[in-house]
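A reminder from the course coordinator: this example appears on the midterm review sheet, so study it carefully.

Given structure:
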C-alpha cells in the first residue's frame, strides 16, 4: 500500500532536518527502544522497532538500509522487520526542500504480512492494512513534529 506524508517545518532549515534524519542515535531516541540500532554495514543498521497495532504489539527485529543519499535533498530508506507472525517491508524516499519553508515529503510503499495461529483472527486483510498504514503515517508525523520542536528550541524560537 502507498504511504505519503508531508510536513512543513516552522524553525528548521533543510540541513538541520537532514542531520536529524541521518543521526541514527537521535532517531532511535525518538522512535525505538532507545538502545539504538547497531551498524552492520555501510549505511545499514539492525535494531528493534516498537509496533502497536491491534491485535499486534511488540518489537520488530528490523534492518534499515539507506540508499541514494543526496545531501540535503533526498534519500531512500528500505526497512525489513519481523517478529513471530509479523513481516513488514517498506521502501520509501524522503525529499527535503525549501519552498519558502523547509518541507519534507515521504513517498513509499508498505507491505505487511501476518501468519496467525489457528483460531486467532486479526480481521480482514483490508482493515489490518489500513491500521498499519495509519500507524506508519502517524509515526512519521510524530517524528517530524519532534524534529520541528527541537529545531525551534535550538534556534531560540517558540514552537
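Designed residues:
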Amino acid at each position: 500500500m502507498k504511504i505519503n506524508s508531508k510536513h512543513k517545518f516552522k524553525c528548521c532549515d533543510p540541513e538541520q532536518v537532514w542531520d536529524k534524519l541521518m543521526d541514527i542515535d537521535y532517531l532511535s531516541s525518538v522512535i525505538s527502544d532507545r538502545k539504538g540500532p547497531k551498524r552492520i554495514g555501510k549505511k545499514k543498521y539492525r535494531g528493534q522497532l516498537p509496533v502497536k497495532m491491534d491485535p499486534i504489539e511488540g518489537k520488530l527485529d528490523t534492518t534499515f538500509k539507506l540508499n541514494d543519499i543526496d545531501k540535503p535533498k533526498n534519500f531512500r530508506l528500505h526497512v525489513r522487520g519481523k517478529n513471530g507472525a509479523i513481516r513488514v517491508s517498506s521502501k520509501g524516499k524522503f525529499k527535503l526542500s525549501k519552498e519558502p519553508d523547509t518541507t519534507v515529503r515521504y513517498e513509499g510503499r508498505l507491505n505487511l504480512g501476518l501468519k496467525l495461529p489457528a483460531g486467532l483472527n486479526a480481521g480482514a486483510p483490508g482493515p489490518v492494512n489500513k491500521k498499519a498504514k495509519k500507524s506508519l503515517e502517524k509515526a512519521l508525523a510524530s517524528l517530524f513534529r519532534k524534529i520541528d520542536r527541537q529545531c525551534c528550541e535550538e534556534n531560540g524560537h517558540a514552537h
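The chain is about 30% helix and 45% strand. The first strand starts at residue 2 and ends at 8.
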